[in-house]
Amino acid sequence: MRHLFLVVFSLLVYPTIYAQSTVCVTGTVVNEQNTKGIENVTILINGRYTTTDIYGQFELHVEKAKHYNLQASHVSYISKQRVLNNSDVTNVVIALKEAINSLAEVNINGKSEQRKLKESPLVSQSVSKTFLETNRENSLMQTLKKIPGVSTINIGSGQSKPVIRGLGFNRVVVVQNGIKHEAQQWGGDHGLEIDQYGIENIKIVKGPASLLYGSDAIAGVVDIQPANVPKRNSFSGEVNLLGETNNDLFGVSAGIASRKNHWFYRGRLTYRDYADYKVPTDRISYDNYIFELYDNNLRNTAGQEANASFSLGYKSNGITSETFISNVNGKNGFFANAHGLEVRTSDIDYDASSRDIDLPYHTVNHFKLTNNTSINTQNHDVFIELGYQNNYREEHSEPVPHGYMPKPDNSKEREFNKNTYALNIKDAMSLISNHDIVAGLNLEYQDNNIGGWGFLIPEYNRFTVGGFAYDQIAITDNFNLQAGLRYDWGLINTKSYYDWYPSTINNPDGSTSYVYLQRAQDKTLNFGSFSGSVGLSYIANNTTYKFNVGKSFRMPLANELASDGVNYHMYRYERGNLNLDPESSYQADFEINHDAEKFSFGVSPFINFFDNYIYLNPTSNYYETLQIYEYTQAEVFRFGGEIKASTTLFKKLNLAASAEYVYARQTSGPKKGFTLPFSPPLSGVVSANYTFNSFSWFENPEVMLDFIVTAAQNEIVPPEEITAGYQVLNVSFLSKLKLSNRLKPLALRIKLNNVFNTKYYNHTSFYRLIDVPEPGRNLSLSLTIPF
After folding, report:
1. Which helix (H) or strand (E) holds 562?
2. For the whole model, what pTM was predicted?
3. 62-70 — which CB contacts under 8 Å span 24+ positions?
4. SS (H, E, C) 330-373
C-alpha cells in the first residue's frame, strides 16, 4: 500500500494532463483616471469568473476557444466588455471609469465563495486571515474560541483541542490542506500539532459533516484551507514577532511566497519559547493535598516549539498542483502536581527556574507530506488529495515502582509512533442545468506502534474507506436543495500486549503464580454504516434561511476498544470495551442570518440524538488505589445553539454580542439522567470596536473590548465538580504603522487578557479537574513586518 501511495504521489507532483484544452487569461484592471489597480472587480469570461486582487490583477483558466468574451464589473465603476483572441489573452489591461450616478445591472453567472456558503444548507462559518491575526492566542484553537459554538479543552498555555457544541476529541475532524490531521487526539492532554501562522482561511462546520469528511466528523469540522496561489511574478513575505508577560513567551515566525509564471513556492519557519504560566492564586488543592505555588507559577508548564514548512506548486491551463511538507516539533512540561503527585516525593526542585522543562514532560514531532491537485475542465472539477503523516510522541515521567512493576531504568513512560496514509478523490460535475453533483472517495490507513514501560493503549492498524455523492439543486435562483448519501467501512486490528514484569497471582488452591498479565489481545473488528443528509437553503434579500437533517456515525477508536492501564495525567485506570458499537447520531440544524448595511443578526439552533454514545464511565472498582473507568455506551439527547448580533454606530463604533448554549442528557446507561463530561456552560461575549482617525505613524487605530460572561455549570457527571460562573474583560489595541512611504505598513497589536486578574475556572479545561484556575493577567505584544 505504501508503494501505491508513493507512485500516485509522484504522478500528481508533475501534472500535465488536460494542459492543451484550456487557456489562461491574465490581466490588470485599473482606474481610468489614475491608473491604480482596482480590487474586487468581477471578471467573467465564457461562463467562468474570478475577482481581482488588491493590485487589480486577475488570472482565469477557461476552455480553449476562438474568441473570449470578457466582462469586467464593479459596483463603483461602469462595466466594460471586450472580445479577446488567442493571441492577446495575457497581460490584458482594462481601464474602468468611475460611476457617477448609477451602474447598469450586470448578470453574473459565476458564484462567489460567500454566495456558495449561503446556498449550502450546512451551518458553517468562514474565518478570515484578518480574524486570525486580530484574535491570535497561544494556540490555533484558542484563537478560534471567540466563534460562537466553538470552545477548547486546554492543556496548559500552549496546547488545546477543539470542541464544537460540547463535543470534542475524535468527534471533531481537523483538516489541513484537504487531509485529515491524524495525531493522538484521543488523549485529553494531547493538543494539535499545527502551526497557526501562515493560515489564511478556515471553514468551521457546526454539526455532523460525515457526508463530506468521513465518520469522525460527527460533531463538526475545522477545515484549514490552502492559501491562495501567489500572483504571477510576485514575491512577498512577513515576519511575525510575539511577546507575552504571563509566561514570558517569545515567538518569531517568518514566511515567504513567490511565483514566476507557472511555478510558485512558499516557506515558513516558526519558533516559540515560553516559561511556566501564572495563575491568580498561590495554592491549589488536589486529592486532599494543598500545594503552594511559588510566585504564582504553575510549575513545569514551560515549553518550546519549532516548526518548518515548505510547498512547491504549479498552476497553468486548468491545473493547479501543490506539494506541502511540514514538521512541527514541541516539548512541553506537564504540571508536576497533576501526574501522580510527584511534588510530594520528587527530588526535583520544580521552582528552581520557571523555564525548566522537568519531568514529567512530553515531546511531539509531527511530519506531514501532502499534495493537492485540481483539474478543471468545462464540466468537471476534479480534486485529488494525497497525504502521509508521522506522529511521534514520547511521554516521560520519573521512574518509580507501581504495584508489582519494579522501578524502570529510564524515564520513557510511553511512546506512540503513528503513520497515516490518506487519499481523497472528488469530482464536482456540471452535467445537468441547475444541478451541482459531487461524488468522491476517501481512503485512510493507520499504523500505530507503542513503546515505553507504561501501557495504556495497544498497537493497532486501522483502515477506512468511504464513498459519497450529493446533488445540490437550484430550484430557483435563491432556493436550493441538497441531498447526499455516504457509506463508510472500516477495519481495526489491535495487537496483543503483555506486561514486561510478572504479577503475583493467588490461585484457588493456595499456591502462588507469577504471571505476565495480558493487557490487550489480537483482535480484528470491522464496522460499516450508511450516513446521509437532506437540506434546504433559501435566500430572501438580506436574509438566509437554512435547514438540514442528517444521520452520521463514528467508528470506535483503539483506546475505547482496548485500553487497559493507568493514565497518570488523569490519575485513574482506564479500561476499554471490545463490544462497543459504532456511534450513530441523528441531528437537525436550523439557521437564520440577516445581514443589512449597519445591522446583522443570526440564530442557529440544533437538536441531536445519539443511540449509542461512547464515554468513559467511573466505576466503584479500584486498581492499586486508582479508580477504574470503563468505556460504555448510552443514549444521549442534546439540543442548543448559538445567537449573534452586531451593529455599526457613528461609522466608527461597532457593537457585537453572541451567546451559546448546549443541553445534554443521558437517557440510558449507568449515568442515566446526567449530562456529558466537559459540557460547556451557557456563555456569551459582548464586544465593542472603535476606530480612531489616523495620526502620526498610526493608520486607522482601533480599540477592541471583549467582555466574556459565563454562567455556572451545575450540570455535571460525577466525579466532575460544579464550576462557578465568571466574567472576564479583554482589551486590544490594533493599528497599522506607516513608517515610510516606501515600505509596507507594519501591523501592531497590543492585547491585555484578563484585565482584572480574575480567578476563574473553565469547565472544559483539562486542568480544571485538579482545581487549577485559568491564566492570570497577560499582556501580549505582536508585530507583523511585511516585505
Report:
1. helix 558-562
2. 0.85
3. 62/22, 62/23, 62/25, 63/21, 63/22, 63/23, 63/377, 63/378, 64/20, 64/21, 64/22, 64/23, 68/23, 68/25, 69/45, 70/25, 70/43, 70/44, 70/45, 70/94
4. EEEECCHHHCCCHHHHCCCCCCCCCCCCCCCEEEEEEEEEEEEE
The DSSP bridge pattern shows strands 57-63 and 22-31 to be: antiparallel
What pLDDT, in 10s, does the model give residues 177-196? 999 999 987 776 677 899 99
Residue 18 is predicted with a pLDDT of 40
Instruction: Name residue 273's beta-bridge partners.
Output: 250, 304
CA 28 to chain centre: 35
Cβ atoms 43, 58 nearer than 8 A: yes
pLDDT digits (tens, 9 = 90+) for 283-323: 988 767 788 899 999 999 999 999 999 999 999 888 999 99
Distances in Å between the Cα of 283 and the Cα atoms of 246, 289, 291, 298, 771 are 17, 10, 5, 10, 10
Q: How far apart are CA 401 and CA 725, in angstroms?
A: 41
Q: How far apart are CA 12 and CA 15, in angstroms?
A: 5
Buried/exposed 177-215: b ≥16 CB within 10 Å, e otherwise:
bbbbbbbbbebbbbbbbbbbbbbebbbbbbbbbbbbbbb
Query: pLDDT value at position 660?
Result: 96
Other C-beta atoms closer than 10 Å to the C-beta of 400 total 12
Q: How far is the C-alpha of 664 from the C-alpha of 679, rounded, in Å?
A: 8
> Angle at Cα 655 formed by Cα 649 and Cα 658, nearest 5°?
150
CA 767/CA 189 separation, integer angstroms: 9
User: Whole-angstrom Cα distance, residue 566 to residue 7?
Assistant: 42
To which residue does cell 466574556 refer? 708
**Nearest to 174, CA basis, from 163, 166, 159, 188:** 163
Domains and CATH numbers, the chain: 2-110 (2.60.40.1120), 116-347+358-786 (2.40.170.20)
Q: How far out from the chain centre does Cα 237 lie?
A: 24
Question: Which alpha helices (H) appear in 112-182, and where do they start and end?
Answer: 113-119, 129-134, 140-144
Scan for cell 516521560, then name that residue: 396
> What distance lies between CA 88 and its chain's CA centroid?
43
Q: Which three cell numbers, joined as nine digits, stand for 784?
A: 507583523
> How far, CA to CA in Å, does 710 sit from each of 38, 494, 508, 776?
44, 42, 57, 17
* Residue 721 Cα to chain centre, angstroms: 28
Residue 568's contacts (CB-CB under 8 Å, 6 or more residues apart) are 339, 340, 360, 397, 413, 454
Within 13 A of 743's CA, how many CA atoms are on the CB side? 15
Task: For residue 337, count CB atoms less than 10 angstroms from its CB and return exposed for 0-12, middle for 13-18, buried for 19 or more.
Answer: buried
Mean pLDDT of 31-49: 83
Q: What is the maximum alpha-carbon separation in the chain?
A: 102
* 781 CB-contact burial (10 Å; exposed 0-12 / middle 13-18 / buried 19+): middle
DSSP string, 286-333: ETTEEEE-GGGB-TT--EEEEEEEEEEEEEETTEEEEEEEEEEEEEEE
Q: Report the alpha-carbon distance of residue 41 to residue 38 in Å, rounded.
A: 7
Set of cell numbers at residue 678 = 466537559
359-418 residue pLDDT tens: 989 999 999 999 999 999 888 999 999 999 999 999 998 888 888 899 999 999 999 999
The CA distance from 348 to 359, in Å, is 8
Query: Is residue 497 a contact partner of residue 459, using CB atoms and an 8 Å limit?
Result: yes
Q: Which is nearest to 307 in space by CA: 358, 222, 364?
A: 364
Cβ neighbours of 594 (radius 10 Å) = 16
DSSP 732-754: EEEEEE---TTSPPEEEEEEEES
Round to whole Å and give the CA distance between 740 and 191.
41
Q: Which residues pair with 783 in a beta bridge?
A: 241, 748
Report the C-alpha dihedral over residues 175, 176, 180, 183, rounded to 10 degrees: -110
